[in-house]
Specification:
This protein has 52 residues and is an all-alpha fold. Helices cover 50% and strands 0% of the residues. The longest helix has 26 residues.
């Protein structure tokens, strides 16, 4: 074999990551909003000092 020969090959096409549909994006946004509300409620319920 001749090791000093360069083989020119086309790069393999990279797979694009799957994109979310607009409906899926809306669902993710609503889940994030609900999670934020639950976290704020849990903070005030269990962590913060009682109001004076």
């Amino acid at each position: 074999m001749n090791d000093n020969v360069i083989k020119f090959q086309r790069p393999k096409p990279q797979k694009e990551p799957p994109k979310l549909s607009p409906k899926g994006r809306k669902v993710l946004i609503w889940l994030a909003v609900i999670a934020a509300v639950v976290l704020v409620w849990a903070y005030y319920q269990f962590v913060s000092p009682p109001a004076v």
